[in-house]
Amino acid sequence: MKNILLLILITATLSACAPVLIGSAIVTGVNIAHDRRSAGQVLDDKIITASVKNEIRKSLEDDSRIKVESYNGVVLLAGEVKTTDDRIHAEDAAAIKDGVVKVVNELKLVDEISKLGRRSKDSYLGSKAKASLLKIDLAGFDPTRVHITTANREVYLMGLVSRNEADAVVERIRHLRGVERVVKIFEYTD
């Protein structure tokens, strides 16, 4: 009887958490189902991203602004640093991690790291770019296969796509107001 009461108590306590856990698992499952990478590679990329971010945080000044994204072992570093040494150090921190095939270092040297307003505009620009992919009318195109990172009004595109898909994505995004540059880091299926 005590075990049953304990089970009911635990269930009641966790009942609010259950939808969150189940929802999170469903979203991850859906993302993997639409991804052209294997589930193992998706997980490896998440581990690489977290590991590189952690290594950079340990070794660089807090006033740098670095975005890290990994796709199929290719690591993108985008954002701002104050010194060439920080730029090189960030790239080295990424390059030494297991599973990293290539590092694309797009870090900009700046005198002053951008403020919250600039960062908010970049976030908005990234959301606008993602939403614009829904308007692409191309047979078999799935916008969830394109990973978008924005920094300094520049849009970085990663994913495993066909050349036609890549061209359509770039064409759609390069015309958005506020986009100064589009950088393709795609891998191609054809």
Report on the architecture of this protein.
The protein has 190 residues and is an alpha/beta fold. It has two domains: 81 residues, Histidine-containing Protein, Chain: A (2-Layer Sandwich); 77 residues, GMP Synthetase, Chain A, domain 3 (2-Layer Sandwich). It has six helices and six strands, in the order αααββαβαββαβ. The strands form two sheets. A three-stranded mixed sheet has the order 1-2-3. A three-stranded mixed sheet has the order 4-5-6. The radius of gyration is 20 Å and the shape is globular. The relative contact order is 0.12. About 5% of the residues have low confidence.
- Average of pLDDT: 86
* Residues in helix, %: 40-55%
How many individual β-strands? 6
- Low-pLDDT sequence parts: 20-28
CATH topology name of the largest domain, in short, is: Histidine-containing Protein, Chain: A
- Shape descriptor reads globular
How far apart the termini lie comes to 63 Å
Which strand-content bin applies to the residues? 15-25%
Structure classification: alpha/beta
Largest β sheet strand count, sense and barrel closure? 3 strands, mixed
By DSSP (H or I, 4+ residues per run), the number of helices equals 6
Number of domains: 2
Strand order of the largest sheet: 1-2-3
Radius of gyration using CA atoms only: 20 Å
Return the CATH class of the largest domain. Alpha Beta
The sequence of SSEs as H and E is HHHEEHEHEEHE
The CATH architecture of the largest domain would be: 2-Layer Sandwich
Pfam families: BON
Protein name: BON domain-containing protein
Keywords: Signal
Organism: Marinicella sediminis
